[in-house]
């Protein structure tokens, strides 16, 4: 059993000291699931692994960074934290703040946050505000708020967030015994791709575990890094990556260029297709944004990326749990048939008679 929580598991790689109060919910140590049926359905020999970050305590990878951010905030004597969020940062900040006995304030873009995430932030007792604007507006407001008032910012521009999130790369290398050949990951505010690249590099410097090519994926309607300019009015059903001006833009570009990788865009239709394949073929339910990584694999297969290395080891990060966005899951499917409470009717409707 690895120690509980990423700070204890990887303490020597993190900026914590003996006096840092560790605020943890035993995050990390998430499953790395081989996806053989997915590979078969894609008609390829890739060795695909799903890093299922939906298994973190609040259902997304944000918990890896939040245990660091709240521990360091507690060490500094902070009483309150604030974030702008497409939902998962809010849920995570609210949970870890509750655990630390701090107040959390979260700013959500009105109407653009999946239901499960809102329910979490409320349940954990955060002060939840819906901003009449998009995520980028909310993030600017939070920055201004922190300049003026004594409250700690816990978005991924807080450097401790990135430090915590790099532990995802450590876990992958520890489990595979080496770095994958390719690392596929959704890109929103671009903190996570920045963090994974840092984690792979730090481990490689120590253990010569190798380095993957970093393959980041935005949604077509919210693809500022692909376009090379901010998107004023981003659109995608994958709300977790509906961001027009990523805070860690430079980190994402460095990860791409230093690793010989790529940042591309996939359509909402491709995202939904990958999302359905993951749950129906592998029994792994993630939220739509997470499926952008697998949509990226499908696209890359089509573009011939793996021609040189058809049996490459490919890791896809599934950033958040499917239950975060139950409305989307239901919308993608046929309506549930209502049947009389009678055996013949049930058997016939079930297709077993
Ligand atoms: C936050 C988030 C992302 C985007 O991560 P960034 O670090 O902002 O690029 C992707 N998927 C999910 C589920 C998220 O919560």
Beginning-to-end CA distance, first to last residue: 47 Å
Rounded Rg: 20 Å
Helix tally equals 15
For the sheet with most strands, the description reads: 6 strands, mixed
Summed up:
43% of the residues lie in helices and 14% in strands. The protein is built from 15 helices and ten strands. The strands form two sheets. A six-stranded mixed β-sheet has the order 1-2-10-7-8-9, with helices on both faces. A four-stranded parallel β-sheet has the order 5-4-3-6.
How would you characterize this protein structure?
By secondary structure, the chain is α/β, with parallel strands linked by helices. Helix content is 43%, strand content 14%. It has 15 helices and 10 strands. The protein has helices at residues 6-9, 36-41, 62-75, 88-100, 115-123, 135-148, 159-165, 167-176, 191-207, 224-227, 249-259, 268-282, 288-302, 326-331, 343-350; strands at residues 32-34, 47-52, 80-84, 103-109, 127-131, 152-153, 182-186, 213-219, 262-266, 313-318. The strands form 2 sheets. The chain has a 6-stranded mixed sheet with strand order 1-2-10-7-8-9, sandwiched between helices. The termini are far apart. The structure holds pyridoxal-5'-phosphate (PLP). Pyridoxal-5'-phosphate binds next to helix 9 and helix 13. Pyridoxal-5'-phosphate binds at residues 60, 62, 88, 156, 186-192, 240-241, 287, 289-290, 319-320.
